[in-house]
C-alpha cells in the first residue's frame, strides 16, 4: 500500500510541474521581451534576490551565523567596493567578498 501512494505523489508532482511548464511555453510567445509585464517580473526577481541576500546578512543560519554582523557587513562593503572598482565585474566582487569574510572571521 505504501508503494501505491509514492507513485500517486510522484505522478501528481510531475503533472503539476509539467502543467506550469506547458503554460509557460504557451504564454511565452505572447509576451513582449521589452514589455511592462517583463519589466515587472524583473523587478520582482531583483526584489526577491535583495530580500534573500539581506536576510542572509542580518539573520544568517548555519556556519554564517557564527560570524559577527560587523564581519558580514564589512565583507559586503569590500565586495561592493571591489565590484564597483573593477568595472562591475561580478566574479571578482564575489571572490573579494568571500575572501574578506574568511580573513575577517578567522
Which descriptors apply to this entry?
single chain; 106 residues; mainly alpha; 78% helix
Walkthrough of the structure:
The protein has four helices and no strands. Helix content is 78%, strand content 0%. It is flat, with a radius of gyration of 21 Å. Helix 3 (69-85) packs antiparallel against helix 4 (90-105). The longest helix has 27 residues, at 2-28. It is mainly α and 106 residues long. It has helices at residues 2-28, 36-58, 69-85, 90-105. The chain has a domain at 67-106.
Main sheet attributes: strand count, strand direction, barrel closure: none
Structural class by sheet pairing and helices = mainly alpha
Shape: flat
- Overall average residue pLDDT: 93
Helix-strand layout with pairing:
Blueprint: H1 2-28, H2 36-58, H3 69-85, H4 90-105
What's the gist of this structure?
This protein has 106 residues and is mostly helical. 78% of the residues lie in helices and 0% in strands. The chain contains four helices and no strands.
Amino acid at each position: 500500500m505504501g508503494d501505491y501512494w509514492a507513485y500517486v505523489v510522484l505522478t501528481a508532482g510531475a503533472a503539476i510541474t509539467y502543467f506550469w511548464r506547458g503554460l509557460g511555453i504557451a504564454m511565452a510567445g505572447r509576451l513582449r521581451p521589452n514589455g511592462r509585464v517583463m519589466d515587472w517580473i524583473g523587478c520582482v526577481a531583483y526584489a526577491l534576490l535583495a530580500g534573500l541576500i539581506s536576510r542572509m546578512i542580518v539573520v544568517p543560519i548555519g556556519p554564517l551565523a557564527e560570524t559577527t554582523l560587523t564581519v558580514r557587513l564589512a565583507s559586503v562593503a569590500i565586495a561592493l567596493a571591489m565590484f564597483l572598482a573593477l568595472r562591475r565585474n561580478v566574479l571578482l566582487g564575489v571572490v573579494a567578498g568571500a575572501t574578506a569574510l574568511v580573513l575577517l572571521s578567522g
